[in-house]
User: Fold this.
Amino acid sequence: ASATCCLHPAMAPSFGKLVPKWMRPIIQDLGEVCRTLDLVDGFSGRGEMGRAFHVKDWSVANFDAKDGIDITTYTGFVCVCGMVMALKEGGLLWVGPECRLFIFFSSSVHARNKTNRWGNVANPDVERANLEAILTAALIRLAASRHVRIVLEQPGNSQQPSVPPMELALSLAGTEKVLTCLGSFNGNPEGPFCPIDKELQLHGNVPFLTLLRRARPKRDGKHEHECYKVNAAGVSGGKDLAATAAYTREFCELVEACYARSLPRIRREIAKAKLHGCLRDECEWESVDEACGEMLFFYS
Assistant:
């Protein structure tokens, strides 16, 4: 599609306000996209969330760097923009970006704190993590501009939601936050199983978000799984750590069931509000967008 293609009519009312300026040429080049998707599962890992929706006959698309769609590359980001634009009004964008350089255990590497959310940008890995956060935040704003619902998932101690562009995107999308515990969703014997009582923070603008809240369950005895190793050198990952990144099947099935029950309400909310009437003046976030635009080195 060329840059002269018309934008989808459903995007027109809030396009100028919500989509970052640096992103608009990409969206214009994509042109009109047929809206056929119900769920986009971002950073999908093992794909459990998408699978739970697919078996219930929802139309699903997944993306993950391990499958060749890396949003920190130009082609990968454009591909994912197309996926988000293909979501129906009331569809769901579920994203769980990599958390490794935002959590407590890597503090000595990323050096993030309350006065420096970007952390040690001299470290190429931290710079890439920041880039991924910027681009994910832009996808959230694109989704909101098209009246798509969003959920951002991160570990309980992750600082990613506080990075300026992500904080702004979540605010503009009208999200709320709940804490849950993945270890509370281990009831399905078919797995996968979460080996620790992993706390998650969920930021979303879906009406069922509070139904996903769970307290950390009480456990008796020492945990048999080796997720972290503590020694004189510090804390490092154990042999079972990778398993904690996967959603349990019970958790994904609950998300799908809650979304299905909530969809009529979501559609009513969209018809009534269309989001753009609640937005603040655009000048309040221009400085954040300009700073992020300068950091997007792959556009040069």
